[in-house]
Specification:
272 residues, alpha/beta, 23% strand, binds adenosine-5'-triphosphate, binds magnesium ion
């Protein structure tokens, strides 16, 4: 599905967010990305959904070099890739149905989009997408009246309405409590299995990544630190991943290490 060869992204001529990265992801694969803050995870996803082009290197999507696409060809490829964000980017005052159907905006004409705002078209599609995430009863509710977890489900339903081949989920569970977080991660994994979609997920929780994903990639300083089956990720890999990350001050670095250690050292299968 993706082949990245020597991909670099340099912001403002000096900030190296991705550093000669090589990566292959097969169609239908489920991959978790973990790594310290500033490792380049979001930058990588923004490149994978063709929001930003690489500074150098080659990005191949489904056999096609998409490193520097423009115009109609860029829009066509973007339509095949759905993204779920930590901040769901929903319009809070609109009913749920409109937010779900906004997933179709990439393939609708402006006229269709305007008409749908007055009277939702493709209502069945919205109902189906909401049913897939277990909240079909919320179709006409105002989006802002839903809980954080329900709003994240609306965002996933919007992505499903787009019907992409690839799902990129960037910290999709950072704003919900741990029990809901596991539920949303499992939901995305199930959807990926049922509808044969490739799934890549950025996660701050090492626990969730190791418990649910067959393949886990550790990203650090814009490079792949490890790329392993979850069962082969050791304490040493995690220590190397989270030590000496990109931080402004020495105090911040110490705090980061402590936070990440407490996040994963409580797992029974990881403690030595
Ligand atoms: N638009 C931008 N302009 C300048 N620098 C940027 C931009 N986007 C990202 N960066 C820088 O690139 C580096 C990687 O950032 P990125 O957001 O990809 O990290 P991340 O791994 O997603 O971090 P987090 O876990 O905190 O979300 C950081 O140093 C960041 O400051
Ligand atoms: Mg990020």
């Amino acid at each position: 599905m993706y082949q990245l060869s020597h991909i670099s992204k340099i912001f403002d001529g000096r900030i190296v967010a991705l550093d000669a990265l090589n990566l292959k992801v097969r169609r239908g694969e489920k991959v978790a990305l973990i790594g310290p803050s500033g490792a380049g995870k979001t930058t990588l996803f923004r490149m994978l959904n063709l929001t930003i082009p690489p500074t150098s290197g080659t990005l191949v999507f489904d056999g096609q070099d998409v490193s520097h696409l423009h115009g109609r060809r860029l829009r066509e490829v973007r339509r095949r890739i759905g993204t779920v964000y930590q901040q769901h980017n929903l319009v809070p005052r609109l009913p749920v149905v409109h937010n779900v159907l906004s997933g179709k905006l990439g393939s609708w004409s402006i006229w269709q989009a305007m008409c749908s705002l007055i009277r939702p078209t493709e209502l069945n599609l919205a109902c189906e997408a909401l049913a897939q995430v277990g909240i079909s009863d919320k179709l006409y509710e105002r989006t802002e009246s839903l809980s954080g977890g329900q709003q994240q489900r609306v965002a996933i339903a919007r992505m499903l309405a787009q019907n992409p081949e690839v799902i990129l989920a960037d910290e999709p569970v950072s704003s919900v409590d741990p029990a809901l977080a596991a539920g949303i991660v499992k939901l995305l994994l199930d959807l990926s299995t049922t509808y044969l979609k490739t799934l890549l997920m950025n996660l701050h929780s090492v626990d969730l990544a190791l418990a649910h994903f067959p393949r886990v990639i550790g990203l650090k300083d814009g490079k792949v630190s490890f790329d392993l089956p979850a069962a082969e990720v050791t304490d040493e890999h995690l220590t190397a991943l989270y030590s000496g990350g990109r931080t402004e001050t020495i105090e911040e670095e110490a705090l980061n290490r402590a936070e990440h250690r407490s996040a994963w050292s409580c797992q029974p299968h990881l403690t030595s």
